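Encode chain A's predicted structure.
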Amino acid sequence: MTLRIERISGGGKTTLRVSGRIAEEHLVEFQAEVEGLGAGTALDLEHVTLVDVEGVRFLGECEARGIELVHCSLYIREWIARERRK
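Encoded structure for chain A:
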């Protein structure tokens, strides 16, 4: 499965519902969707099936910019934390 991103806006908040794999080959598309977004934005990761190291680094960058990660798997959260400590 490839990466699928659905934009949901309402109540002054934008949520990007992400499904599939977040891998290096999909990051250009993902970055384009996230560009210009910051606080008040959420990435719903409930339907993410696989993430590679570049995807984890990108999610960490998003979070550092104030984008909320919701329904984020514990293993992804732990991986983001490990990458930050490097």
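The helical segments are 27-34, 53-64, 74-85.
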